[in-house]
Write a structure and sequence with these properties.
single chain; mainly alpha
């Protein structure tokens, strides 16, 4: 029969297995738990954000409550005294029903829809690049359109400036014609006067205006070349950017309207301090907004502002030159008209003097003829047979008187003295008459010179008024200027009939 051991002698450990065996099993179990916890934690960590990893020393529910607390809506006070719940700022998905806004979740492992997600991401990248290229192309196209418009305005202004320059050159030709035509005046009328000074002053002023217009033409030509070069660069960049948007049918103007930037629509508009709409991206050699496009747009903006200032200056100079040239021409014509009035006044005085001299010459000539007749009457007849009885000195009474000594008659002596005195007066009268005739001839010549000078000045004024008409071009005015000496009229060609 079995032997029973007494309780006092029974051991405290009732387990049968050996302690080493139990420790080995416990170690295996603990190792399995550790592997399970680490693998589970690693699996969960791969499916949640980094900041959501809980603290192992804090309870799980407390970690979750602290993690989702920033997602909840915030209560804000309004002016009326009420409250309103607003989602927290930042990116995320707003859940209005649960009043939470969790942030965007980024996984660390590829999901089952990873291929589709990558395709969508690629499509978004391509579409973003296409939209950026389209926006850049729209900006380049608008800049090209504005540069073309500025080119047209500059060409029109150049035509106006060139026309004004031809008018100034025509004014110089008119001045040259006036000087040469006034050279036909007689020598007595070529005394330097204010009209000659005005013609010289007109030539200097017109040359200064001509240099000013030529400077504007040179400046506009340089600007025109720069604008054409900038337009070619814009066209090249525009076509290069359009290669990425061939399949997009949205108009480029609509793209600029959606961008909301007025400075992109109009390059001359000064950008505001507070930017509205999209911002200009930084230049990227491999992006949509390349440094070449940025440089082309900057150059277009600079040239556009410069060309606007140049157009304003050219228009102002053209208007100033037109007014100045008209004022100069009017002053010269007024000076010549005043010279004509003075010449007319002198002509009238000389004509009156010539009339008075003509009457004096007629009276002197008649008086001289009467003195010749008187001298003939005093001398008496040439033949003795023509003497009257009272004129004969051998009549009886005279012979009786002459018998006495000292009784000579004074008749012969008186006649001789009277004849000699009358002859002296006749000679003096003829001398005065010759002087009157010479003075009349000189006065007549001076009057004719005055008439010629008046006609020349009149023709000069008439020529100036006719040649400065806008319908008379520079080539027509140039045909009247020939290489001839004003003092000698041009020789008529042989074999041609006189006109």
């Amino acid at each position: 029969m079995p032997v029973l051991i007494p309780p006092a002698e029974r051991s405290q450990d009732t387990r049968v297995g050996a302690p080493a065996w139990r420790e080995a099993a416990r170690a295996i179990t603990q190792k399995a738990h550790q592997v399970t916890d680490s693998c589970g934690q690693e699996a969960v960590t791969m499916w949640q954000p980094k900041d959501s990893v809980r603290d192992p020393h804090v309870a799980r529910h407390l970690c979750r409550a602290a993690y989702i607390e920033p997602w909840r809506f915030r209560v804000e006070m309004v002016k009326g005294g009420g409250t309103v719940e607003q989602p927290p700022p930042g990116e995320g998905i707003t859940l209005w029903k649960s009043k939470m806004k969790p942030p965007a979740w980024h996984t660390r492992l590829p999901l089952p829809l990873h291929r589709d997600a990558r395709a969508l991401q690629t499509a978004e990248v391509v579409q973003a690049h296409a939209r950026g290229a389209r926006l850049t192309a729209a900006r380049l196209g608008r800049a090209q359109h504005q540069i073309n418009g500025q080119l047209r305005q500059l060409l029109r202004q150049r035509e106006a400036t060139d026309h004004r320059l031809s008018e100034v050159r025509k004014g110089l030709l008119i001045n040259q014609q006036s000087v040469k035509l006034r050279g036909y005046r007689p020598k007595s009328e070529k005394v330097p006067d204010k009209a000659d000074s005005m013609l010289t002053w007109e030539e200097e002023e017109l040359k200064a205006l001509k240099r000013k217009m030529e400077t504007d033409m040179e400046k506009s030509e340089t600007l025109l070349k720069a604008l054409a070069s900038c337009r070619d660069t814009l066209v090249y960049c525009f076509k290069e950017r359009l290669q990425a948007v061939e399949l997009m049918n949205q108009p480029l103007d609509k793209v600029l309207e959606q961008a909301g930037r007025h400075s992109w629509v109009d390059l001359s508009r000064v950008p505001s301090a507070r930017t509205q709409g999209q911002k200009t991206p930084p230049p990227d050699p491999v992006g949509t907004y390349t440094p070449e496009c940025a440089g082309a747009l900057y150059e277009a903006k600079r040239l556009l502002l410069e060309s606007k200032d140049t157009l304003v200056d050219m228009a102002k100079n053209e208007a100033h030159v037109r007014e100045q040239q008209l004022l100069i021409s009017d002053r010269v014509c007024a000076t010549l008209a005043q010279k004509m009035r003075e010449t007319t006044e002198l002509k009238e005085r000389m004509n009156m003097t010539l009339g008075l001299m003509r009457g004096t010459i007629n009276r002197c000539t008649k008086f001289n003829q009467e003195m010749y007749i008187t001298r003939g009457l005093i001398k008496g007849p040439l033949s003795k047979s023509h003497l009257e009885t009272r004129e004969k000195l051998d009549r009886p009474l005279v012979r009786v008187y002459q018998r006495h000594v000292g009784t000579q008659l004074p008749e012969a002596m008186s006649l001789a003295q009277s004849t000699d005195k009358l002859q002296r007066h006749i000679v003096n009268m003829e001398k005065n008459l010759n002087q009157l005739l010479a003075a009349r001839q000189h006065l007549t010549r001076s009057l004719n010179c005055k008439k010629t000078g008046h006609d020349v000045d009149y023709n000069v004024v008439r020529l100036r008024l006719r040649q400065r008409h806008p319908h008379v071009c520079y080539q027509q005015a140039q045909l009247l200027v020939n290489d001839w000496d004003p003092r000698t009229p041009p020789q008529r060609q042989s074999g041609t009939a006189p006109q």
